[in-house]
């Protein structure tokens, strides 16, 4: 089942991603081409208040031309732990500080062509501070009950994969 890289060619190296086109030898001896997007990894964090309410962020996503309702999330910086990244993104996007951060696992977003791995966190015991948005971030925070967020996922009103996964994991953990 494993594939062996025969030739690897970088066709784009950007600030966030690198795109390669590789020639591989398949397990059956044939060769094929693979287009691969290398990503440094990311975190997603769901802030959950004792009241059962969560905070999501609404933002415009250029590649799909739509506003999405999502959990706070962001790319890992070089030499940054996933815990540090989760706390940083939570603070930047929502202004919240978590005194209880729980790791719930990770997901691969699109393993057919991308190496992106998103680490999922639940943030509890929250304290409200000031948002610290990056200069290129324009978003709005939305607070709603967790059970309403679950319903919105089921109805297709929330359809960002990391957000759906994290909302369902958090809901299962609470029940």
Please provide a written account of the structure.
The N and C termini lie far apart (39 Å). The protein has 3 helices and 10 strands; from the N terminus they run E-E-E-E-E-E-E-H-E-E-E-H-H. A hairpin with a 5-residue loop joins strand 2 and strand 3 (31-38). The chain has 2 domains: 4-38, no CATH class; 42-174, Nucleoside Triphosphate Pyrophosphohydrolase. With 175 residues, it is of the alpha+beta class.
Structural class: alpha+beta
Shape type: elongated
How does the major sheet shape up?
A: 4 strands, mixed
Strand order of the largest sheet: 7-4-9-8
Unreliable stretches (pLDDT < 50, length at least 5) are none
Number of strands: 10
CATH topology of the largest domain: Nucleoside Triphosphate Pyrophosphohydrolase
| CATH class categorisation of the largest domain | Alpha Beta
Task: Indicate the percent of residues in helices.
Answer: 10-25%
Quick summary of this structure?
The protein is of the alpha+beta class and 175 residues long. Helices cover 21% and strands 46% of the residues.
């Amino acid at each position: 089942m494993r594939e062996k890289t025969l030739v690897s060619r970088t066709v784009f190296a950007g600030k966030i991603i690198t795109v390669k086109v590789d020639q591989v030898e398949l397990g059956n001896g044939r060769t094929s081409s693979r287009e691969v997007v290398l990503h440094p990894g990311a975190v997603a964090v769901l802030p959950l208040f004792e009241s059962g309410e969560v905070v999501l962020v609404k933002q415009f996503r250029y590649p799909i031309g739509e506003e999405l309702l999502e959990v706070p999330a962001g790319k890992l910086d070089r030499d940054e732990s996933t815990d540090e990244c989760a706390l940083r993104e939570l603070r930047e996007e929502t202004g919240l500080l978590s005194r209880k951060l729980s790791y719930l696992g990770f997901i691969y977003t699109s393993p057919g062509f991308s190496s992106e791995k998103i680490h999922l966190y639940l943030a509890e015991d929250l304290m409200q501070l000031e948002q610290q948005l990056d200069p290129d971030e324009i978003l709005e925070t939305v607070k709603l009950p967790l059970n309403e967020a679950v319903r919105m996922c089921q109805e297709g009103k929330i359809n960002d994969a990391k957000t759906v996964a994290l909302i369902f994991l958090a809901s299962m953990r609470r029940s």
